[in-house]
Amino acid sequence: MRPNRRRRGCAPGGVCFGVRVPALYILVAIGLSGCAPAADPARPPDLVVVSLDTLRADRLGAYGNRDGLTPSLDRFASEAVLFEHAYTQATNTGPAHASLFTSRYASEQDAGVRKPAIAPETKTLAEVLDAYGWDTAAFVGGGDLAPEMGIGRGFGTWSSKVDFGSLWHTTPLALSWLDQRPAGAAPSLLFVHGYDVHMPYLKPTPFGYTRADKDAVGPGQDAVRSTTERMLDGWFHGGMSGLMHAETSEVRPRSPDARARTLAVARTDRVPPREAAATDLALVRGVYDGSVTYADAMFGLLMAGLQDRGVLDRSVVVVLSDHGEQLGEDGVFHHSWGVSDAEAHVVLMVRLPGGAEGGRRVTGQVGLIDVMPTLLELVGAAPPARIHGQSFAAGLRGEPFAGRPVAWTQGGRDFMLLGARTPAGRLVYSGMPARSPVAAELVETAALPGPSFTAHGSLDAAAQGALRGEMAPWLRTLSPAPAQQDDATLPDALRASLRAHGYWDVQP
Q1: Of the N and C termini of the chain, which has fewer Cβ atoms inside 10 Å?
Q2: 21 has a pLDDT exceeding 70
Q3: For the chain, which domains are there?
Q4: What Cα–Cα distance (Å) separates residue 9 from each residue in 5, 19, 295, 375, 390?
Q5: Alpha-carbon torsion, ordered 379, 122, 100, 179, to 10 deg
Q6: 3-state secondary structure of 379
Q7: What is the DSSP letter of 356?
Q8: 324: alpha, beta or left, given left = phi > 0 and alpha = psi -120 to 50?
Q9: Residue 293: is it exposed, middle or buried by C-beta count within 10 angstroms (0-12/13-18/19+)?
Q10: Distance from C-alpha of 236 to C-alpha of 160, rounded to nearest angstrom
Q11: What is the pTM of this model?
């Protein structure tokens, strides 16, 4: 039976707004943590989810970086539970957030190349909480999360005021929404997102060149001011035809043969490519790091706003990145090209009310796909059927938690890349879209080793064979994806903005 959305009272047994409150929050409410203010133990905590687009986990001090790029995020980590081995399920913004909000894999969504809408029969986190009487609002940076993309289904408010905007743009709107909520309002889910680290990497002074030489001369400067996807295999391409060829024509765009074909096509472009020196590559990486510090500063403003309003200590606050970014590891400076750790390893930290369990580190593998069932468990709401995520609430409580033996990530055009990550390394399959009805059969019959498989880390032959043996059954667990949509319905301005930010597969 559908929970009563009009109900605002609490029944015996800790049920409020149709939600049973877990014992963890009753303990926090009565002061077990020594930090939390007195609170109504019958009321579930509010939920705040912050997505820092394109942020590599290895840039945070909390994840081992020693360059001092992220003081605000590192302070947050000291008050949160940090997941050391968290992986995205897709290495592009739209599909990654679709998996975050549905606990289903990217290839199961109504995910055309530029239309990553959520499949109609799928229930989202916001829809589930709405059924329990929650208020839901999201303030996002447009682009792949623009309203036309369909990722915000179920949210009462889905605001996108600036295309490819920063937390600088979305934080004031989120805080204003909080300020307008009446006393005694229903529990809330607030989602805040920003493209603070996304290309173009160059951010406002003083952040842009804090880690790079602003007076350097060369194609690196052109890359950081426009789109770094123009950097390919040590060359900067002023024209786009070669890169469009790589993204739309090659089954395995990073294979040796594909690289040779791509560069050959690029060299025929009307704008000849320029070779990038080591100083250019260092400049691009340094400016990316400057964008990380910019994102950290904007994140600090958001946290200060939540703290000033008393929201921080009464909420479960999840901070994550939707995917990382290649910084030349495979010859590119971008994402969606691969499923390596550079793109797939993401930030995931959860601050419990009052900072309970703060500083705990969890080593078991998890995925962004696990966030939805975890949050629903924490507030006592039932998850929808046919989700793939597994709650990691036990890890938050400090209980034994093994995590996922395999974390799955999809990437590339039409999700032709499938990465299976274990603690020992990753096996990557490429060459067939995951939604193909014969994908599983091809995985089973492709030669190992061979052009369809690449291994990373310390996977020996036996481990590679075992992972291949898991890929086909996993593919068969996925629901068939609805028919793909094209981008014909996107507004011209949004389509142009997507192309300007490196999404060359958007039709002109």
Answers
A1: N
A2: no
A3: 44-200+289-397 (3.40.720.10), 239-270 (no CATH), 407-477 (no CATH)
A4: 11, 11, 40, 22, 31
A5: -60
A6: helix
A7: T
A8: beta
A9: buried
A10: 32
A11: 0.87
